[in-house]
Amino acid sequence: MAKALGVGGIFFKSPNPQALMAWYQSALGLPTDSADYASFFATAVPPGGCTVFSPFKEDSDYFAPSTKGFMFNLMVDDLDGALQQVQAAGAALAGEVADYDYGRFGWFIDPDGNKVELWEPKPFFNLES
């Protein structure tokens, strides 16, 4: 049986894809090899980091205040710094920082109205244990 090995990409529509990509490159330091996409390699994932695939119930309000049917999560090395950077770049923060055994989370609304979750993994979190 073939198996999925991880998320190979996050793809979504934007009224101005290159402008939104430039915003993410400036606000969160996404790789700048291309004006069209950013590639993250396994060596960049912090200890305890992983990619989560999780459908939500249709009536979930977890993506609010965005009205979009999706949300994406970016792992960061400094949640507080990343939230300050996106706010300085014009994003609206959404909610309070949350702290769990597996890391800290914060949210913002990007220039296209997408809710984005930032995750700073805890160094010793391991989903396999």
State the CATH topology.
Answer: 2,3-Dihydroxybiphenyl 1,2-Dioxygenase, domain 1
Overall 3D form: globular
Average pLDDT score:
90
Poorly predicted parts: none
What this model shows, in words?
The longest helix is centred in the first third of the chain and has 12 residues, at 17-28. The protein is globular, with a radius of gyration of 15 Å. The protein has helices at 17-28, 79-88, and strands at residues 72-75, 92-93, 98-100, 103-109, 115-121. It has a single domain (17-121), classed as Roll (2,3-Dihydroxybiphenyl 1,2-Dioxygenase, domain 1), CATH 3.10.180.10. By secondary structure, it is an alpha+beta fold. It starts with 16 loop residues before the first helix and ends in an 8-residue tail after the last strand. The model has no long low-confidence stretch (mean pLDDT 90). Strands 1, 2, 3, 4 and 5 form a five-stranded mixed β-sheet that branches.
Key phrases:
alpha+beta, single chain, globular, 2 helices, 2,3-Dihydroxybiphenyl 1,2-Dioxygenase, domain 1, 5-stranded mixed beta sheet, 129 residues
